[in-house]
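note to self: dont lose this again. the chain is below, predicted strucutre after it. 230 aa total, dont forget to put it in the shared folder this time
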Amino acid sequence: MHKFLKFLLPVFAVALFFGSVSVTEGRAQGVLNTILQRMDQQNKALTSLRAGVTMTKVNTQLDESDKYVGTVLYLPRKGKDAYVRIDWTSPNESLAVRDNEYVLYKPSIKSYYTGSVKDAKGSGKAGGALAFMNMSRAQLKENFEVKYLGEATVASGTETWHLQLTPKVASSYKSAEVWIDKDGFPVQSKVYEKNNDTTTILLSKLEKNVSLKGSAFSITIPKDAKRLES
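---
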């Protein structure tokens, strides 16, 4: 499974399902209840999203980092998996997830990856990220705890509530952090892997409830493009 698919979905999955996970630290219960209530209201009101996206991946072993910049489209669907598309401008790549299928197109080498999200869920590399998308609210409540870490301002200048999400069961990563804006929307997420590598996804210039058609989530692949193995 290509590395981009591993790190694309957590921020959107948290937006969809965060509203009923269990919480810790009774002293912060009131704040957490407010945050979760606003997230629930935001989730119900959100019909689509267009935004800028920045992904920063840090390799702590090599003390190196990679940064990716682009735009994202997100279309939730009642009772079904959401449509997601990211068009990276740096590097030049496009990734779309639609109807349980993903397509990643790399125009610089005229090549692409494609496959079933269901198959990706069984992959050790992608399972941690995609697991969020397949869990019911009851499963999330059973498997995760949430801790309120205080208020923080993210790189885009947005003031947020800072939360920590810790798996209660064995997972492919150690923990995740999520930054929620005052409207209840998760504008940033950070995943900590077991080897301490991190991936941070930041959303900016949010355009909510814009007109988006399903066709916007289809990537046109040239006939002479080569399919690569995932």
